[in-house]
Each structure stands twice: as structure tokens, then as C-alpha cells.
Amino acid sequence: MLATAVIMFREVLEASLIIAIVLGASRGIENRGRWVASGAALGLLGAAVVAMLANVASSEFSGNGQALLNAAILLGAVIMLTWHNVWMSAHGKQLSTEVKAVGADVESGQRPMAALLIITLVAVMREGSEAVLFLWAIATGGEQGTRMLMGGAGGVAAGILVGMLLYLGLLRIPTRHFFSVTSWLILFLAAGLAAQAAGFLNQVGLLPALGNGIWNTSGILSQNSLFGQFLHVLIGYIARPSGIQILFYVGTLMSIFLLMRTYGSNRRNTRR
Amino acid sequence: MRLLISLLAGAALLNNPVLAAGEPETTLVIDHQKFSPAQLYIPAASRTKIIIRNQDAVPVEFESYDLSREIVVPGHSETSIYVGPLEPGSYQFFNDFDHDMQGTVIVKPARGN
Lengths: 272, 113
Fold this sequence. Notes:
Strand content of chain A: under 5%
CATH architecture of chain B: Sandwich
CATH topology of chain B: Immunoglobulin-like
Oligomer: heterodimer
Largest sheet of chain A: none
Number of domains of chain B: 1
Mean pLDDT of chain B: 82
Mean pLDDT of chain A: 85
Strand content of chain B: over 45%
Shape of chain B: globular
CATH superfamily of chain B: Cupredoxins -  blue copper proteins
Helix content of chain B: 10-25%
């Protein structure tokens, strides 16, 4: 029962942390709750579909298809996070003055609402499909089934709780620094997701590894530990990364940073 | 002989990284909630295809932090992944749906065998 709780906790944690960051970063944007909730609902639906497809065990899907789907949705999330951050770097200042004046609306440009929906959808769908498969496996596992499902529910609740704590923690950051903190969080989150995508593309043989285990810090901080997993989600910590993962990580980090600088500074210049 | 095979595999790899024919290949079987063999030997300095065959009814998530690999293998089915080229050493893997189910990929040096 405890083992089930721990596994479900781990599956839920990633989605929960990502949603917490996205909710924090979109603070002050009107109707964001509705968009994020729709994303979560669609993500659960998608998770069920993916789990069903995987169980049908059509060899095409269960093999490379699974890894390719994972890579595609991870890269989709990276693009959406980039859009969100670039938009924020242009409008963040305005947004943070309006967060102080509650109820005001932001009147500039196209808001990244679809980005909110898609990021949530992707986060829920990816981990959710694994959770569904896992629960299905234990539900068919015999007499222990009910107790294990209860453990699983406990794990889900704990995972959501940690996400809520992160969100509440973010809200305590002073408004003046708030959006720069969430922008940095999203920057590293996106880089980490890109590195994961590179791992999947290498797994199916579409990308070269460019060296496996460029360094190995699993002795210092195991990815298996709770803190290791926490850092894996938040900043993309990989204890034993391959060259291609490092390349994707650094490439994404620099691209988003440059885009943010470009759009952010353009705006500042036009104001002067 | 093994050196020759890995050299050939390396040459094939250079010609066609995706569909290299001469690559080493090995099979990992999941049976009665155990990985078999629990110690999977693969050669160094060559990309290796690992076929994961799940003979149980329940799905297994083959996962390895050391190898950065993660794939769900449904019940009664098989799938394949690529690993490497790897440095000699040992690389842990486990079933993310059942952490008591573990195994190790052991990479032997290409020479001296």
C-alpha cells in the first residue's frame, strides 16, 4: 500500500509542480483558472486514451510510437513555455503593476491563454497515462487491489498537496520580483523538458547520444531520491546526462533567454 | 571476434545511424515479475539494441536514470530501445511500477576478453 502511494506520488508530482509554476506565472491574467482547468481535464482524457492505446499493445505504438509521442509533447510544452515567457518579458511589468491594483485587465497583445491550456494538458497527459497504466496493473493484481488503490489515492493527494505548497510559496514572493522569479523558473523548466525530449529521441535511435554519462553525480544526488526528483522536474537535473541532453538543455536555455532579452529590451526602448 | 563485430557495428553506424544492420542486439525478458537476465552484458563502444519482452500480463515501465531511458512495456508484448555507445561500467535499471524489480546493464570493455 505504501509502495503504491509512493509510486503514484512520483507520477503526480511532476504534473503538480508544473501546474503550480504555470499558475504562479500567469497570476493576474484573467480567466487563467478556466484555461488551466480545461487543460487538466483534457490531459486526463488524453492520458486515458494513451493508456488504452498502450494496452492494446499494437507493436507500433508500444515501441517507438510511445517514445516519439513523449518527445513530441515535451517539445510542444517547451514551445508553449517559450511563448509564455517571451510574452511575459514584454508585458510582465504592466502585469505586476496591475496585480497590485486587483481586477484590472491587461490590454496588450495576444495573451498566451492557449499556452496555459497546452502546458497543463501536456503535463497531466504525460504522467497521467503512466499513472493509469500503473493503476490498471494493480487493479488486476488480485485481492490486494482495493488497499493498493487506496494507497494510490493517498499518493495522488500528497502530490497535489506539494504542488499547492509550491504555489502558495510562490505567492509569498514580493510582487515586484514575482514575475522575474517565475520567468526564471519557467526558463529552467523548459530546458529540462527539452533535455528529456532529447533522451526519448535518442532512445529510439533518431538522435546520436554524443557521449553517454558525460558526468555522473548520482553518488552526490541520486535521481531516485525525492530531492533529486524535485530538482529533475524543476530545473531538469539529470545525474548521468548524455551529450545530446546537455546540448538540448543549454540550447533551449540560451534560445529562450535571448528571445526574452530581445522582446523585453525592445519594449523598454520604445518606452523611452 | 567480438572486437571485429563491434568494429563492423561501428562502421555500419557511421554509414547509417538509424537503420544500421550490424548492431549488437540483446534481449531482456520479464517473467514472473523478474528481469531475466538480471545482469545484462553488452559491448562497449557500440550502440546496442535491447529488446524488452514482457511475458507477464501486467505492464512494466522499464526505467533507468543511469541510461536516461523510460518506456512502458504492456503485458504480453515486446518493444526495443537503443542504448550507448557506453563506457565500460554498470548501469542500474528498474521497473517504475514496482521498484523491487531491478537489474543492471554491464558494459564490458571492447578488448581484453
